[in-house]
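Hey, can you fold this?
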Amino acid sequence: MPQVVDKANLPERFPTNRHAAEFWEELGRTVATFGFLEEVLGKAIFAFTGTRSYSEDEVQQVYETWLSKLERALTDPLANLINEYEKSVKGHPEAII
């Protein structure tokens, strides 16, 4: 027999009722900050990989792998984005570190 939840008897603001509203606000801001950082890193990866020069021999191979790299830049977790950003900057011949 399936479990039934009596919504009328749940505490007010359930399931966030055990912490102050300030906690949930700060948690939301923290999550949003990480999301913003992921977005910025994705754009930076796009910029560094899309603006460097390639030889004629490299163009087709780079073009074929670029779409998957950009898709990962939009979906990868923060740690992977940081590593990809580092590789993108180091691989750009005109980047100033």
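Oh, and this one too while you're at it.
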Amino acid sequence: MDWYLFDRDLPGADLPPIRVYQREQADRMTDAQAQVFHDLSQSIHTLFRVVRFKWFSRDIVVQDLFSKKKMVVKDPRLAQAFAPGDIFEGRIFKHQGAWHFTQGFCFHPVEMKSFILGEIKKIRHQERARHIKFILQLAQMKLKHQRFSHIDVEQIYRHDSRI
């Protein structure tokens, strides 16, 4: 769903739905609502690694694997769903000075950490479109891994996979 709201340009508008809505409803929004939509439209879609937890505040420290930037996400409910070292696709946005995730995540097998990090190292300094292409390739590999769980994950998470 995130892709439909944040990335897919609407025909004729050449903008994603969130920005079209923001533009069309700007005069009807309160300042607080306008700020929320602005913050959401500035979201970052990337691959993250869970670095650690801040146990007392229950915050999660994650690292964007492309930029290497670390961010503290303030959502104690998420601490139960993550483990240090997890690599996942997600979308993050900053609102009122704190980082928050949208609800869509795609977790990748821990066994594929070296493959994923190796590929990111190759494309880290390339254009953003190449990063997105790799993120989508990984999501496709994850789907195949779920569908074909009887096949070794290393046969699926590779560029020359025949599955």
